[in-house]
Write a structure and sequence with these properties.
The complex is a heterodimer.
Chain A (H helix, E strand, L loop, with lengths): L8 E6 L7 E7 L2 E7 L5 E5 L13 E3 L2 E3 L6 E3 L15 E2 L1 E4 L2 E5 L3
Chain B lengths: L3 E6 L3 H13 L4 E7 L5 E2 L4 H5 L9 E3 L1 H6 L2 E5 L3 E5 L4 E4 L4 E3 L2 E4 L3 E3 L12 E3 L3 H13 L2 E5 L3 H12 L3 E5 L12 H13 L3 E3 L4 E6 L5 E6 L4 E3 L2 E4 L3 E3 L2 H5 L8 E3 L10 E3 L4 E3 L7 H15 L13 E3 L7 E5 L7 E7 L4 E8 L2 E8 L5 H10 L7 H4 L25 E3 L4 E2 H11 L4 H8 L9 H12 L21 H11 L4 H7 L11 H12 L13 H5 L2 E2 L5 E3 L10 H13 L4 E4 L5 E6 L4 H10 L12 E6 L13 H12 L8 E6 L13 E6 L2 E6 L11 E6 L2 H18 L6 H8 L1 H10 L1 H15 L5 H6 L4 H4 L2 E6 L2 E4 L5
Parallel strand pairs in B: 1-2, 1-9, 2-5, 9-21, 11-18, 12-13, 12-18, 13-14, 20-22, 34-35, 35-36
Antiparallel strand pairs in B: 3-4, 6-7, 7-8, 10-19, 15-16, 16-17, 23-24, 24-27, 25-26, 26-27, 28-29, 30-31, 31-33, 32-33, 36-37, 37-38, 39-40
Helix pairs in contact in B: 1-8, 11-13, 14-16, 20-21, 21-23, 21-24, 23-24
Classes of the chains: A mainly beta, B alpha/beta.
The complex binds siroheme (SRM), flavin-adenine dinucleotide (FAD), iron/sulfur cluster (SF4) and FE2/S2 (inorganic) cluster.
């Protein structure tokens, strides 16, 4: 199944396909993006690279609106991509939207 | 809804700590107004000593500056002393007439130096040592005058004297008692301390009573006269002969006071609307003068102010540490020696003195001089009332747990250079730690870990970090009491309480536990979630639902994550045995999936490292087809059972160690545990399988097996202890399973067997597992029940379970657009 996308919004999957308090990895032509679904069903997408030493954030434990990096335990905020104090750093954030349970990601920013 | 009004009187360390805790529990409950007699924000009073000695500056010791009050919407009346509390109209009034109404009131007025009632005690140049103003007065006197006298050789007096001497004054310390710091030290330690302070230039006059302070021509104090008639010149006299809780205000308001304002275990005064914390308080007959217990009070008080109502303050045991650079003194508990046994080490030349006092096999007090490395360990044992019978013979030599990365034997934290490396895992030097403690105002090990990462990985430098913390903040550092320590920041409950409740209430899911036990966070944290998940699945096997999202990635994906995000696969080799077919399957898989590294592990099997996550299920499928299962080289679970060749081949072998090892590993397949579990079976006492450092070590001997438990070859090597001797293979299985089940049911998450056994004692294990046959059988049955029908998790995933975990949603570039790749069939 191959489909062309007209807008800059790419359809990713349905929200239900992402485990609650978990994540899915999207491979955007070689760039790994992690989409998270929190306990409250909020969806966030950030680059799948920890600002510390590049750990795959998608593999971490999700706590509220943060994820604990699986490598050395930094806490990264899902809504901003920022590391929680006292650590410093930021992972790139991606715009997303949800329409009727379908998740879209923006590729333009 | 209108917020309640909280007014706090006294803007010091205990009070502001209460507000900080309250902010964590209930940030929006109150409109807060604070009155402070001093014209500053809240500063770290403890560090006035290094300011006096010139090692730090005032701006460095601010804990909460004025911005903090603004950011937290707290109204601060700095420099306004409260003179009246009107409990009828619920309003407090300050000297200048400023008023504030309250729904709840918090009194945290601290204490004041005790001023000796001698003639001349009000002359200019006579000061107490309490606040910034006093410190500034002392620094100024040192610039213009020569002679200083400090009355009182307690902690404060000595730190004042040391500071004044470092600022170039000629300092004499006058003390009523026969030796210095008599409330903290015994005579031997005090004499050693006095000698080293004398070397630094201080003079001492002991057993001396002050008669009068003499007024000089300028109107300022010029001399001090003693009862024995002797006179000494004195341009400045520092009164450090004790402190008095500030209770006048509370007393005038009709609140019940003895020495301090009397409070109950919830930090309430006799008026339930009025709380009090800090040095102004008397709790169960004791008024504390050190920060650590006050912080405990603050926590409890905040909990009640937040209407949570679960904390109780039950008093504290305190320890002290003198903050004079280059001198290590530590004392804790009761060392008067009444009715106690003592162990003493006294090395006069080496400048080391250690005294440990024991009652009923428990530490009741300790005094250390020169080498205080183990101070916090002894203090922990003391607070935990741990039975030290088993370790008594090497108690004096300490925990020996300071060293992995080149600082073995390094015991003088105070004299280590700033450049010395403390944490080998994270490359943190002493200077980094000291700087973080001072600039961020840190008081706890957890805070230091967060800010510097020191001791946050393998933890072997914990002792050293604790020592550095203690030498920076003095008695303000106390190791937390491990018997009452909450599981994590999300709850007040201990591991044991949580486990007990899960059993009693028959909770089957994490949200049930969190709701039932009033978790303060909506979803827990990365430390409690995995623990709760383990407690649930181990308490209610086959009933509680495993929550993959609360498992660390290695357990969730059933493979070990690598630094570059790839994984490793370690096929199980039961008892370390393999076959040509299995080796062929491994070789094939390594080629097929381009595995960059193939390695023999320390656990007698072969590791395929650097596997892409997506390839994992395919690789497992190939292994399954070859009749193999993968292994947990990760996870809090059964790991390996190492074996030697044993009686199968070896000329010395007395038992079939390989087959015993295979039986054990097959029995334990699929076992989750508080931490990882490793076993080894050797065929004779030559012990080629290294059974002496395993959670369970089995050693074949003529006529049976010796069983050893609670060994560990990891961060801190621990030799396994002899449990018992058994005759048959079946008994090896039964005893091992029973021991492990006990550990699974009672240990705290992340305790290895050694930590658990150290806590409960080997005698307890023997009573439950060896002496009580019925209980042993029951434990054995419970473990077998938990393990029955365990499904091979790798095979399941090879067949498509949790597919989303392994397969990314993939988009390709096509011209300008991205398009989704077809899902693999
Ligand atoms: C693969 C192996 C090293 C090797 O190449 O030989 C290994 C690799 C790791 N060990 Fe180990 N340990 C390995 C044998 C050991 C041994 C020796 C043994 O098992 O006989 C020990 C000491 C014995 C013991 O545990 O009592 C050992 C003591 C540790 C420790 C310290 C445990 C402790 O309680 O002190 C850790 C840290 C931990 O588990 O928290 C650890 C953790 C780790 C981790 C899992 C670190 C991690 O979380 O990522 C390593 C994974 C490396 C990687 O990138 O895949 N590893 N590790 C060995 C696997 C054996 C196996 O077949 O399962
Ligand atoms: C030099 C020095 C070194 C120390 N070293 C150590 C150490 O190494 N380890 C350790 O554990 N402890 C040490 N202490 C003790 C520690 O500082 C105190 O235990 C702690 O500060 C007490 O906290 P508190 O909030 O009860 O009182 P404080 O911190 O004294 O705060 C009380 C505040 O209330 C204000 N106040 C009083 N009455 C009124 C009123 N009517 N209206 C408005 N405001 C009022 C006071 O001005 C003061 O600012 C040291 C103390 C000093 C002075
Ligand atoms: S394999 Fe073990 S010893 Fe080696 S670096 Fe990793 S954790 Fe440390
Ligand atoms: S790479 Fe994420 S914490 Fe180190």
């Amino acid at each position: 199944m191959e489909m062309r996308l007209v807008s800059e919004w790419l359809r990713v999957c349905t929200v239900r396909e992402i485990p609650r308090q978990g994540s899915r990895v999207i491979d955007l032509a070689g760039t790994a993006v992690a989409v998270f679904r929190t306990a409250k069903d909020e969806i966030h997408a950030i680059e799948d690279r920890c600002p510390h030493k590049g750990g795959p954030l998608s593999q971490g434990i999700v706590i509220d609106d943060r994820v604990a990096c699986p490598l050395h335990g930094w806490l990264i905020r899902l809504d901003t991509g920022h590391a929680c104090a006292p650590d410093e750093g930021c992972a790139r954030r991606y715009r997303i939207k949800v329409e009727q349970d379908e998740l879209f990601i923006a590729t333009d920013d | 809804m209108e917020k309640m009004k909280l007014v706090m009187i006294g803007n010091g360390m205990a009070g502001v700590r209460t507000l900080e805790e309250l902010r964590k529990y209930a940030p929006d409950l109150y409109d807060i107004t604070v009155f402070g007699a001093e014209p500053h924000g809240n500063y770290n009073r403890i560090l006035l000593s290094p300011v006096l000695s010139g090692e730090m500056t005032l701006p460095e010791i601010m804990l909460n500056d004025l911005d903090w009050y603004r950011d937290n919407e707290i109204t601060l009346h700095a420099g306004k002393k409260v003179t009246n509390i009107d409990r009828v109209h619920r309003v407090v009034v300050a000297e200048d007439g400023t008023e504030a109404e309250y729904d709840r009131l918090l009194i945290a007025t601290g204490s004041s130096p005790f001023i000796l009632p001698v003639p001349g005690n009000d002359l200019p140049g006579v000061i107490g040592y309490r606040d910034i103003a006093d410190t500034e007065a002392m620094i100024e006197a040192a610039q213009t005058h020569k002679h200083a006298v400090v009355i009182g050789a307690g902690l404060l007096g000595l730190e004042a004297a040391n500071g004044l001497a470092l600022r170039g004054m000629d300092v004499t310390v006058v003390h009523l008692m026969a030796w210095i710091m008599e409330r903290q030290l015994d005579k031997a330690a005090a004499d050693m301390l006095q000698a080293s302070l004398e070397q630094k230039g201080l003079k001492f006059k002991l057993e001396t009573q002050t008669a009068e302070l003499v007024r000089g021509e300028s109107g300022r104090v010029c001399a001090i006269r003693f009862k024995d008639g002797e006179t000494l010149p004195a341009d400045i006299v520092v009164m450090a002969a004790g402190i008095r809780p500030n209770i006048d205000l509370a007393k005038a308001a009709g609140l019940h006071c003895n020495r301090g304002i009397v409070v109950n275990d919830t930090m309430q005064t006799f008026d339930p609307r009025v709380y009090a914390v800090g040095e102004c308080v008397e709790h169960r007959g004791t008024a504390y003068g050190l920060v650590a217990p006050l912080f405990e009070q603050a926590k409890v008080c905040a909990n009640h102010l937040a209407n949570f109502g679960i904390g109780r303050y039950q008093g504290s045991v305190v320890s002290t540490k003198l903050k004079v650079t280059g001198i290590d003194v530590f004392s804790a508990g009761d060392f008067s020696g009444k009715g106690a046994e003592e162990i003493v080490l006294h090395d006069r030349q080496g400048g080391v003195y250690k005294r440990i006092l024991l009652k009923d096999n428990r530490i009741v007090g300790t005094v250390l001089y020169g080498d205080t490395a183990d101070g916090s360990w002894y203090f922990q044992l003391l607070k935990d009332r741990q039975d030290v019978h088993d370790v008594r013979d090497h108690l004096m030599f300490g925990q020996n747990h300071l060293g992995d990365a080149g600082h073995k034997g390094e015991s003088h934290a105070a004299s280590m250079p700033d450049s010395a490396q403390v944490c080998g895992c994270n490359g943190v030097c002493k200077g980094d730690i000291v700087k973080a403690i001072k600039t961020h105002g840190l008081f706890t090990l957890e805070d230091v870990r967060k800010h510097t990462k020191a001791s946050s990985s393998c933890g072997s430098c914990t002792g050293l970090v604790e020592q550095i913390l203690a030498s920076c903040v003095g008695g303000a550092y106390t190791p937390s009491d491990s018997k009452t320590k909450p599981m994590c920041g999300c709850t007040e409950h201990t591991h044991e309480e949580v486990r007990e409740a899960i059993r009693k209430e028959k909770w089957l899911s994490i949200p049930e536990v969190q709701l039932g036990m009033n978790w303060t966070t909506p979803n827990g944290c990365a430390s409690c979630r995995p623990a709760l998940n383990y407690y649930l699945v181990s308490t209610w096997p086959h009933e509680a639902k495993d929550d993959p999202q609360s498992r660390f990635i290695n357990e969730r994906a059933h493979a070990n994550i690598q630094k570059d995000g790839t994984y490793s696969v370690v096929p199980r080799m039961w008892g370390g045995l393999t076959t040509p077919d299995e080796l062929r399957a491994i070789a094939d898989a390594a080629e097929k999936y381009n595995v960059p590294t193939v390695k023999v592990t320390g656990g007698q099997r072969i590791d395929l490292l650097g596997v892409k996550k997506e390839d994992l299920p395919k690789m497992w499928a190939d292994f399954a087809a070859a009749g193999m299962v993968s292994g947990h080289a990760y996870g809090k679970s059964i790991r390996t059972v190492k074996t030697c060749v044993g009686a199968e081949h070896c000329r010395f072998g007395t038992q079939l160690s390989m087959s015993m090892g295979v039986k054990l590993e097959k029995m334990l397949f699929g076992m989750w545990s508080p931490h990882k579990v490793k076993l080894a079976v050797s065929g004779c006492p030559r012990n080629c399988a290294e059974a002496g450092i395993k959670d369970i070590g089995v050693i074949g001997v003529d006529g049976g097996y010796e069983l050893y438990v609670a060994g560990n070859g990891g961060i801190k090597t621990e030799v396994a202890q002899f449990l018992c001797k058994v005759a048959t293979d079946e008994e090896v299985l039964e005893y091992s399973a029973a021991f492990l089940q006990l550990y699974r049911e009672e240990a705290r998450y992340l305790d290895r067997t050694v930590h658990y056994v150290q806590r409960v004692g080997l005698d307890y294990i023997k009573a439950r597992v060896v002496d009580d046959a019925a209980n042993r059988k029951a434990l054995y049955e419970r473990l077998l029940y938990a393990l029955q029908d365990y499904k091979d998790p790798w095979l399941e995933r090879a067949q498509g379970v949790e597919k989303h975990e392994f397969v990314p949603i993939r988009f390709h570039r096509k011209g300008d657009a991205l398009s989704q790749e077809a899902e693999p069939a």
